[in-house]
Specification:
rod-shaped, 69 residues, two-stranded antiparallel sheet
Length: 69
């Protein structure tokens, strides 16, 4: 595929990146490399917004609070 570079840059067709939300663009030697970035893992979001409930030992005894003694 050939593409014309305009004063605004280069447009890469979306069809080349199905289901990709974000890419990394870098220059290597005399090449431009475009690599898809992995999607955010939802497990990494856990704990970013903790809930205040007044329990001081929740992290130590979370099983007993969730499931009972």
């Amino acid at each position: 595929m050939k593409a014309k570079i305009t004063k605004h840059g280069l447009v890469v067709p979306k069809e080349m990146f199905p289901d990709v939300e974000e890419v990394e663009i870098r220059r290597e030697d005399h090449r431009v490399v475009i690599s898809p970035l992995p999607r955010e893992d939802p497990i990494r979001e856990l704990g970013k917004h903790p809930v205040e409930c007044g329990i001081k030992d929740g992290s130590e005894h979370h099983d007993s609070y969730l499931y009972g003694s």
